[in-house]
Amino acid sequence: MKVNVHAVNFNVDRKLVGYVQEKLDKLDKYYDRVVCSDVFFKLDNTSAKINKIAELKVSVPGDEFVVKKQCKTFEEAVMLAADSMERLLVKRKQKVRAHS
């Protein structure tokens, strides 16, 4: 699966890109028709420690899913977003199977 990583107003470390690729490659075993995915990293301008936002957008034929998580680290946000996306893709797969 093709993964595009976008960082708003900062540069992303290669380790983070590798971590994102590893997490999102696991989504293929839940729904194999994923076309591509985009990950957006943003920093929230607040004084709170939970200021890192990861937004995950996954495109499948006929639909697009978006999950947004905010945590202390980008890795934690990606992990939570990938788990949520996993549940959405499993639901989608069951829905497609029910209709066919």
TrEMBL record:
Q: What's a single GO CC term here?
A: ribosome
The alphabetical list of record keywords is: Ribonucleoprotein, Ribosomal protein
UniProt keyword annotation of Ribosomal protein present: yes
Pfam entry (one): Ribosomal_S30AE
- Known InterPro entries for this protein? RHF-like (IPR036567), RHF/RaiA (IPR003489)
SUPFAM superfamilies from the xrefs?
Answer: Ribosome binding protein Y (YfiA homologue)
Protein name according to UniProt: Putative sigma 54 modulation protein/ribosomal protein S30EA
